[in-house]
Write a structure and sequence with these properties.
Helix 8 packs across helix 9 (about 175-190), helix 8 crosses helix 15 (about 440-455) and helix 12 (about 280-305) runs parallel beside helix 13. This protein has helices at about 5-20, 25-30, 50-55, 60-65, 85, 100-110, 115-120, 130-140, 175-190, 235, 245, 280-305, 335-350, 405-420, 440-455, 480-485; strands at about 65-70, 145-150, 190-195, 310-315, 360, 370-375, 390-395, 425, 470, 495-500, 500-505, 515, 525-530, 540-545, 545-550, 560-569. The two termini are about 45 Å apart. An 8-stranded parallel β-barrel has the order 1-2-3-4-5-6-7-8, surrounded by 4 helices. The chain is globular, with a radius of gyration of 25 Å. It is α/β, with parallel strands linked by helices. The chain has 2 domains: about 5-80 and about 120-200 and about 280-455, TIM Barrel; about 465-569, Golgi alpha-mannosidase II (Immunoglobulin-like), CATH 2.60.40.1180.
């Protein structure tokens, strides 16, 4: 997905440029084009206000609390982590960071002028993928909903797509991946959602139109920039067009600085209204943005119609990038609210007028309309203004050979999110063949063992009046050695409430078996019972002005974190 630091830098640069040039926000200056794609009839119109007027977070979302992110697709074939499809076009001389993928691709496969991403797609076979087996493991681990990858930034659809011929039924596994996940989720009684990241593809593959800046292949165009007219190729024989995968060269959409090194992140933006480029080029780019946006909308509507998901998910925010600025500037559309309205209306038709579906974005024009994704982090405090989830990867989002596994950091990060009133979703990457590493299987087992004992304080829970005690908080980012080394002590406590009970979660076991919950002094109200989840031993406890003082038994009932169930008057 995702290179969070890179994207944060990108958005910072954009905001800085817009502020410095005193440009109008596109929503203030450009008309909203209506994408010519029909949607289901119902109370929701394709506007953020209409969605906000009709959306209410369904009860199942809070009840579920735990989800699994099925972030899997052909980019796993590289076993080299995130954004493989893009980084193979990024030599070290052309990018200061994320340089391992290009030399690995060069060594293992060949130069991207001959063996680009299109040529990797047939190599992904998913030959050991067993969705029923995996879904049973996910449910045993405690998950109650799953997010299946529908399309990533690589523009490849993982179902029998009517509008994208580059898909997993036609190429590679020759299987309907989304359909397989959906059937397995239904079998286990789990809620099912589909993630769409293809909006980024409007600009994401631009490095495929470049070439090496030095070395023996200097100036030789990568495969996206080559002219294949009159040539016999495997994809032409299948009736495929590279435009449907890579898009078109959009160099006219940006002004490259003198020290440009090869990626669309490092650029100076032209004024979206007085851009100063030939009208013919501007029209070409707007026409492409309109074409791509319509196709993207059709693809999402097609997936909704085929799979009736409980929710849909967008890696981008609001109408981005179909908002009239950056790539495709000058064309602003209702694509995102349109597909959300389609889902909501269809879901209400299915449920007698009651909305049981959701949509997730990382930004929006009306916070009432959707739930929000919080990637690889959690809010500083309790967030109750809209439903949200922390989503995190175990290491890289796509499979990386050598992923670091440790189960305790998963439990701790989950408690950091849920104590702030959110949900928690984790991705444990699958290998290219569709299996889990032994470390991934062990993590799922450890999660399930922990939830068997402590789930009553997690499912359907809400935040308390404070999220926790103690100064130690896990560092942001995907899970890795830094997160595993978070120096929690028994003074670090997180809270949830459920069914009239308060749950105090000890992030570490006290060395002397004694703990003080400082948020529960005698003056805060009388406590009538204290139980350690998973233990049959009667606890010694007393309430003083210092707080609730508890003596724990010698034997720990589980690993990683420990729940005190507290009953108040």
């Amino acid at each position: 997905m995702k290179k969070l630091g890179c994207l944060l830098l990108f958005f910072f640069l954009i905001q800085t440029i817009v502020s410095s040039q005193n440009l109008k926000h596109p929503e203030e200056s450009l008309p909203m084009a209506k994408v010519p794609v029909e949607i289901a009839s119902g109370p929701c119109e394709p506007t953020w206000k209409s969605l906000g007027d009709n959306f209410r977070s369904p009860a199942w979302f809070r009840q579920a609390k735990i989800g699994m992110w099925l972030h899997w697709g052909p980019q796993s074939i590289g076993e080299d982590g995130d954004w493989y499809a893009k980084w193979i076009y990024m030599p070290q001389s052309a990018w200061r960071d994320y340089t391992r993928v290009y030399p690995h691709h060069l060594e293992r496969v060949g130069h991207p002028s001959k063996y680009g991403y299109k040529d990797m797609l047939p190599l992904w076979k998913a030959e050991k993928w067993d969705p029923d087996k995996l879904m049973a493991l996910y449910k045993r681990a405690g998950a109650r909903y799953v997010i299946a990858q529908g399309m990533h930034h690589d523009n490849f659809d993982l179902w029998n797509s009517k509008y994208q011929p580059w898909n997993s039924v036609k190429i590679g596994p020759k299987r309907d991946i989304v359909g397989g996940w959906k059937a397995a989720a239904d079998k286990e009684g789990m809620k099912f959602g589909i993630a769409f990241h293809g909006d980024y593809s409007l600009f994401w593959f631009q490095p495929a139109f470049l070439s090496d800046l030095e070395g023996p292949m200097k100036g030789v165009p990568y495969d996206g920039a080559q002219n294949y007219d009159g040539k016999d190729t495997w994809w032409k024989r299948m009736g495929l067009d590279l435009k449907d995968l890579y898009g078109i060269d959009l160099k006219e959409d940006v002004v490259y600085p003198a020290d440009f090194k090869g990626d669309s992140v490092a650029f100076r933006m032209k004024d979206p209204l007085s851009h100063g480029i030939p009208d013919g080029n501007l029209k070409k780019n707007i026409d492409f943005a309109r074409w791509y946006c319509t196709k993207w909308t059709n693809r999402v509507v097609d997936a909704i119609d085929q799979f009736s998901p409980d929710f849909i998910y967008f890696d981008g925010g609001g109408s981005y990038p179909f908002c009239g600025w950056f790539t495709g500037r000058g064309y602003r559309s209702d694509a995102t609210p349109r597909v959300i309205a389609h889902l909501y209306n269809k879901n209400m038709q299915k449920n007698g007028g009651k909305l049981e579906a959701m949509a997730f974005t990382k930004g929006n024009e009306d916070h009432r309309a959707i739930a929000v994704n919080v990637e690889s982090r959690f809010p500083e405090g309790i967030k109750k203004d809209q439903p949200w989830q922390t989503e995190v990867g175990m290491g890289e989002w796509f499979y990386f050979k050598g992923t670091f596994y440790e189960s305790g950091m998963v439990i701790h990060q989950m408690l950091e999110a849920i104590s702030r009133d959110g949900n928690y979703v984790i991705n444990i990457p699958l290998t290219p063949s569709g299996e889990l590493d032994p470390g991934g299987e062990q993590t799922l087992k450890d999660m399930g063992d922990w939830m068997d004992i402590n789930g009553e304080g997690i499912y359907n829970s809400s935040a308390w009046k404070v999220w926790g005690e103690g100064k130690i908080v896990m560092e942001r980012g995907n899970l890795g050695p830094k997160q595993a080394a978070t120096p929690y002590t028994s003074e670090n406590i997180r809270f949830t409430v459920n069914n009239g009970n308060l749950y105090a979660w000890l992030m570490a076991w006290p060395t002397d078996n004694k703990v003080v919950v400082k948020s529960l002094p005698l003056s805060s109200g009388k406590i009538t019972a204290v139980v350690l989840l998973g233990s049959k031993e009667k606890l010694k406890w007393k309430q003083t002005e210092k707080g609730l003082e508890v003596t724990l038994p010698a034997k720990q009932p589980c690993k990683f974190a420990f729940g005190l169930k507290i009953k108040e008057m």
